[in-house]
Specification:
With about 190 residues, this protein is of the alpha+beta class. The chain is built from two helices and eight strands. Strands 1-6-5-4 form a four-stranded mixed β-sheet. The chain has a four-stranded antiparallel β-sheet with strand order 2-3-8-7, with no helix packed on it. The protein starts with a helix and ends in a 12-residue tail after the last strand.
Length: about 190
């Protein structure tokens, strides 16, 4: 059952109950009072038309205001995206090279001097990329605090290099080089 048909049935039921109650009160009183009104059962077509017109008006208002609502929601989302701490930045890991893994992290609006790279626990091979919050505009600061799981086989104790270009942080992590051992057979 749709919302409007439910509202129609509830409204019609309330009207019918009111009519029935007034009718019984009139029948019970021996003489008609000056305050009593004659209640008539409404024409069902009239009630349906009134309800239908109200539903059409509400639907039209919703269709007219929906683009405004969507535009306002987009604006609020954009403002929210400008402010606050980025916890899940877009990043890409390329492990195709045999000697290193390259991680590219999008850090828009963050300057090189504010960025910090660290590996909190060498056993877990997780890279923390963070920055100090920077004021974007009045009442709005933007920062970065993200953890990125490094791919297997990287040397977290090796020389890690990072370079920031056009809002993209490029991090190179060396891979563990395994030396092949030759075992002599006797």
């Amino acid at each position: 059952m749709g919302l409007f048909s439910f509202m129609f049935k509830v409204g019609l039921g309330a009207y019918a109950y009111d009519w029935w109650t007034r009718r019984r009160l009139q029948e019970q009183s021996s003489e008609p009072s000056a305050n009593s009104k004659h209640c008539r059962w409404p024409d069902l077509d009239e009630v349906t038309k009134t309800f239908s017109d109200s539903a059409k008006e509400a639907t039209n208002a919703a269709h007219e205001n929906f683009p405004k609502f969507i535009n306002r929601a987009r604006e609020l989302y954009r403002q929210q995206a400008e402010c606050g701490t980025i916890r899940y930045p877009n990043y890409y890991i390329d492990s195709a090279d045999a000697t290193k893994s390259v991680i590219q992290v999008e850090v828009p609006g963050i300057k090189r001097d504010n960025l910090t790279l660290s590996i909190p626990d060498a056993d877990e091979a997780v890279l923390r990329v963070s920055s100090t919050p920077v004021k974007v505009r009045e009442g709005c600061e933007r920062g970065l605090d993200a953890f990125i799981k490094l791919p297997g086989g990287v040397d977290v104790n090796g020389k890690i290099s990072a370079k920031l270009e056009d809002g993209v942080l490029k991090i190179e992590v060396p891979k563990v080089v395994e030396k092949k051992r030759v075992v002599e057979v006797k």
